[in-house]
TrEMBL record, chain A:
<feature type="signal peptide">
    <location>
        <begin position="1"/>
        <end position="25"/>
    </location>
</feature>
<keyword id="KW-0732">Signal</keyword>
<comment type="similarity">
    <text>Belongs to the bacterial solute-binding protein 2 family.</text>
</comment>
<dbReference type="InterPro" id="IPR028082">
    <property type="entry name" value="Peripla_BP_I"/>
</dbReference>
<dbReference type="GO" id="GO:0030246">
    <property type="term" value="F:carbohydrate binding"/>
</dbReference>
<dbReference type="InterPro" id="IPR025997">
    <property type="entry name" value="SBP_2_dom"/>
</dbReference>
<dbReference type="Pfam" id="PF13407">
    <property type="entry name" value="Peripla_BP_4"/>
</dbReference>
<dbReference type="GO" id="GO:0030288">
    <property type="term" value="C:outer membrane-bounded periplasmic space"/>
</dbReference>
<feature type="domain" description="Periplasmic binding protein">
    <location>
        <begin position="31"/>
        <end position="286"/>
    </location>
</feature>
TrEMBL record, chain B:
<dbReference type="GO" id="GO:0022857">
    <property type="term" value="F:transmembrane transporter activity"/>
</dbReference>
<dbReference type="Pfam" id="PF02653">
    <property type="entry name" value="BPD_transp_2"/>
</dbReference>
<keyword id="KW-0997">Cell inner membrane</keyword>
<dbReference type="InterPro" id="IPR001851">
    <property type="entry name" value="ABC_transp_permease"/>
</dbReference>
<keyword id="KW-0813">Transport</keyword>
<protein>
    <recommendedName>
        <fullName>Autoinducer 2 import system permease protein LsrC</fullName>
    </recommendedName>
</protein>
<feature type="transmembrane region" description="Helical">
    <location>
        <begin position="290"/>
        <end position="308"/>
    </location>
</feature>
<dbReference type="GO" id="GO:0005886">
    <property type="term" value="C:plasma membrane"/>
</dbReference>
<keyword id="KW-1133">Transmembrane helix</keyword>
Length: 332, 332
């Protein structure tokens, strides 16, 4: 069916397609979720989300697969196997931006829908790319996490990675842009822990000394947030200074337990797998077209708006706190 | 007494006091006894490593693998604790020290038996040890919630008002100072570094002495590995990355001659304290992070300049007095 569409294309085939679609309705649509490597908690969780999407859609079979180690060669073999199996769609988190393009192009020529998620493929090798979040959403989330715990307002400080880290600097810039929405919250300073545990710890301790009435430390880096939580515990300021930002549940479980951190955020792999499957389904069934500016529905995750590179951001980073940390700390 | 006042240690003490006064003028809370104790505790890992490094440098060698040794020992301790949370801390300490000593011996054997230059040997083992961490951990972190309370609590347990970590620093300093001053091996370190040829004639094995210096440095690095991991409650491949250079810097500032055979444990203690104070003060005195590295670097250059200058004048005086004495002798 897809092969036909690729060969002839255009609206002239629309009626034929619909007839063909109806004829094949009993065959389940097969969507392959290709991950960087099998056995990684993050991707196992994404597969769980994909299964959820498949059940919601009905008549969809999810093939969760990937190489045993994180190599592009391994993924190319997996892609070739999937082409041979004539799956309907491939949703891939790539080990290499460019190396997979030829294999994925071949898949698209055979009428297979290809999208990338989490870790992207160059535009010519996929129809769209799903980012877990976007810089403005992250920037807003990290200040929101701090502000939500401070209804009366208060002083917060930022503990970043290095002075030249592109990601962190972008997120902090985006955070500063939305500061007007958080009245009463004052950012008193930004310090740099260089993504070293000992330096981050020292900088966090320094912040608490310089600003004795500090209410929160925002660390948009996984090394920094852990070290800052440790520094707050050692300074005996649990309950006074809330550590928040971006971190991984497995690394932050101790800090949530001790109370040094009330909440933090990072993308939710379950939602990511769910959305990737939803998008692959929409494209494979021709209910949506991956073009710049297109808005594609993703079930419970809302809609994805594509930019000029046919990339889109899924949602706000997912918030983890005492209520859900137990479920996620063993996942990733 | 006047000899002490002119000595490098006195100069360094003066510099530390001046530094403290300067910091206190901008942030008075820094010189509160409680905070100074905290700074000393924070400096202890650096101090313990610097003690081992001092002994190695005294024998005309250098050990660049200390930070990697620390990271590997720390990772093994953390993984042991994660696997058997009931393992008592003394066992973990013994494992850390033994493992560290074995890694030090590996360096020592290569330097002793194969006569490879120490800088090359330890540059190689540094990478090997880091690589082994990756192999045993698969690149995964060992996190706070996987460690037992006893494991992370040991270095911060309070004993007579100071945390155990600080006591470890004090004990190590006293132990190494005693060993260097009172044991044949301790004197051999000076003899071998001061004049290897003369040392051979007095019946000392240069290689064997260097071997024991590396073993001691390794054992202390292993000990610090456990303390480090327990203090920051996290173990991963990159902990203490680049820390070996700080350790060498502490020795150099403390007046340990890179040419070997000259230097005191008091000097090492002061050198480590100087660096520790700078590192802890920079976050609180509100210096731009862009300047912090430059300031740390300048401190090292100034210290080394003073070091070489004082050494040079001393050499000249001896020569001059010898010149004066020579004609007198000839006349008589």
């Amino acid at each position: 069916m897809k092969l036909t569409r690729r060969l002839f294309g255009g609206a002239a085939m629309a009626t034929a397609l619909m007839a063909a679609g109806a004829a094949q309705a009993e065959d389940p649509m097969r969507i392959a979720l290709v991950v960087k490597a099998l056995g990684i908690g993050f991707f196992e969780a994404a597969a769980k989300g994909a299964e959820e999407a498949a059940q919601e859609l009905g008549n969809v079979e999810v093939i969760y697969t990937g190489p045993t180690d994180t190599t592009a060669e391994g993924q190319i073999e997996v892609i070739n196997a999937l082409i041979a199996q004539q799956v309907d769609a491939i949703a891939i988190s790539a080990n290499d931006t460019d190396a997979l393009v030829p294999a994925l192009k071949k898949a698209m020529q055979r009428g297979i829908t290809v999208i990338s998620w989490d870790s992207g493929v160059a535009p010519e090798g996929r129809e769209l790319h799903l980012n877990p979040s976007s810089n403005p959403l992250i920037g807003n989330m990290i200040i929101k996490l701090a502000a939500d715990e401070l209804p009366e307002g208060g002083k917060v400080a930022v503990l970043s990675a290095t002075t030249t880290s592109t990601n962190q600097n972008t997120w902090i810039d985006e955070m500063n842009k939305v500061m007007d929405n958080y009245k009463g919250i004052e950012v008193v300073g930004t310090v740099y822990g260089d993504d070293l545990a000992d330096k981050s710890y020292r900088e966090a301790t320094g912040l608490m000394q310089t600003y004795p009435d500090l209410d929160a430390i925002i660390a948009p880096t996984s090394v920094g947030i852990v070290a800052a939580a440790r520094a707050v515990e050692d300074a005996g300021k649990v309950g006074q200074v809330n550590v928040t930002g971006l971190g991984l549940p497995s690394e932050m479980a101790g800090a949530i337990e001790s109370g040094a951190s009330k909440s933090f955020a990072i993308w939710n792999p379950i939602d990511l797998g769910y959305s990737a499957t939803m998008l692959a389904y929409q494209l494979a069934t021709d209910q949506a077209e991956a073009a710049p500016g297109a808005e594609i529905p993703m079930g419970r995750m809302g809609t994805l708006t594509l930019d000029e590179n046919t990339e889109g951001a899924m949602a706000d980073p997912f918030v983890y706190d005492a209520s859900n940390i137990e479920d996620f700390k063993s996942i990733f | 007494m006047t000899r002490f006042l002119k000595s490098r240690e006195a100069m360094l003490t003066g510099a530390i006091l001046a530094l403290l006064a300067l910091i206190a003028s901008r942030f008075p809370g820094f010189i509160a006894p409680g905070n100074l104790a905290r700074v000393f505790t924070d400096t202890s890992p650096l101090l313990i490593l610097a003690l081992g490094q001092t002994v190695v440098i005294l024998t005309r060698c250098i050990d660049l693998s200390v930070a990697a040794n620390l990271a590997l020992s720390g990772m093994v301790c953390a993984m042991l604790n994660a696997a058997w949370p009931g393992l008592p801390v003394p066992v973990i300490l013994a494992v850390a020290v033994t493992l560290g000593a074995i890694m030090g011996m590996a360096n020592g054997i290569l330097v002793w038996k194969l006569q490879i230059p120490p800088i090359v040997v330890t540059l190689g083992t540094m990478t090997i040890y880091r690589g082994i961490i990756f192999l045993i951990s698969d690149g995964a972190w060992v996190n706070a919630h996987e460690m037992s309370a006893a494991f992370t609590g040991f270095p911060r347990a309070s004993l007579l008002g100071l945390p155990v970590l600080a006591w470890m620093g004090i004990l190590a300093t006293a132990g190494v100072a005693l060993m260097i001053a009172r044991t044949p091996l301790g004197r051999a370190f000076y003899a071998v570094g001061g004049n290897p040829h003369a040392a051979v004639y007095t019946g000392l094995s240069v290689g064997r002495t260097q071997f024991w210096a590396f073993t001691l440095s390794g054992a202390l690095a292993g000990l610090t590995g456990y303390l480090w991991v327990a203090r920051y409650a996290v173990a991963y491949v990159d902990i203490a990355a680049g820390f070996e250079l700080e350790v060498v810097a502490a020795c150099v500032i403390g007046g340990i001659s890179i040419a070997g055979g000259a230097g005191t444990i008091l000097g090492t203690l002061l050198g480590a304290l100087f660096l520790g104070i700078v590192k802890n003060a920079l976050p609180v005195v509100d210096v731009s992070p862009f300047w912090q590295m430059a300031i740390s670097g300048s401190a090292i250059i100034v210290a080394v300049t003073l070091n070489t200058r004082s050494a040079r004048t001393k050499g000249r005086i001896i020569l001059r007095s010898a010149e004066h004495r020579a004609p007198e002798g000839a006349a008589a």
